[in-house]
Input
Amino acid sequence: MKKLVLIILLFAGILGVHTAYGRQIRIDTKLPAGNIIVEKMIGDTVYVKPDLRDTEGDWFYWAMRVRGAQGKTLTFKFPHACVGVRGAVVSKDHGKTFFFAGNENRYWYSFTFTFGPKDRDVFFYECHPYLLADWERFAKSLDKNYFREDVLCLSKEGKKVPFATIASQDVDYKHRVVISARHHCSETIASFVMEGIAKGFMANDDTGRWLRDNVELSLVPFIDYDGAQRGDQGKNRKPHDHNRDYTDFLYPETKALTELWMDKKPEIILDLHCPWIYGELNNEHVYSPLGDPTITPDAKAEDRFFHLVEAEAKGLPYKVSGNIPFGTNWNTNQNYAQGLSSLQWARLNASGAKVCCCFEIPFANASGTEVNPESAREFGEGLAAAIADYFRGN
Output
């Protein structure tokens, strides 16, 4: 009878009904943005893989809860690269705090974790999670005299997609900026950078006060709202993902973002992303993939902005020399065969926009610096300072 139960549970895991393995150890998706498929367990090795759902090809986001493994050392093996530069992101207090488990030998396909005698319920993530509850917690901390919450649109699932503005109600702003994140919903570090930008605008210092007096900032924290809450991959979603949807507009959020641009007529449009999970050449430093020069509105203004970001960078290092020119590496027209990206559409259609750029912020390692919520927020504060410099003419 016990053997029959184990077979049923294994089959359920393959189907995505993540449940118990044996009588003591339970591995499931009962955590925020959970995503895992458990295939089998042999001894102290658990074979798992990301739930790709409607993703074309492989991707690497996963999140799982492990219960009842206290006192044990388990190895989790994946069929392809799913373990980041600094290892799994771990929480022993139900998501209140997180730490990197470590990946000194850079094993991309597996990680080993020793559970302490009191580690009855442990969360494991591929990267630091960021959901609506995190955004709402952050929003509550901001001065409502300047920070105003609104709804961008309704998602495909009928949920309210958040949108926020930092501005004084009695100022007719000359300068406007619109910043978006999570076109690929599992790229969570982008959200912490957005928090840092907002924090920079709200700071009680000369830069923050100048920004609030002179620049209206619009923030869209979740372009793929439903996917971010479910724990989807987001990247390469069939028939195409949100950042290839600016031709078809299958997703309500993408159309709503273009309408926001047309309404606000921002001079600066930023889109925040994260790259591949590892790789020192392109994926372990902060960079911007440059736009097609034939449609870039103002290449000199954009280059000036990049140098200001380099000068103001804190938390995470950034060098203009690390940007990827258009036509090199993955940054070619072939990469956009499924449809226009958000910035391509903006460069072609957003009236008044001079700077339309993306920043790719690594998941764990940026030129030797640990990427975590705190360092990502600091980088965002530096971005806010660079925005002030740009409009001030520094």
Remarks:
- The chain has two domains: 2-125, 132-392.
- The longest strand covers residues 147-154.
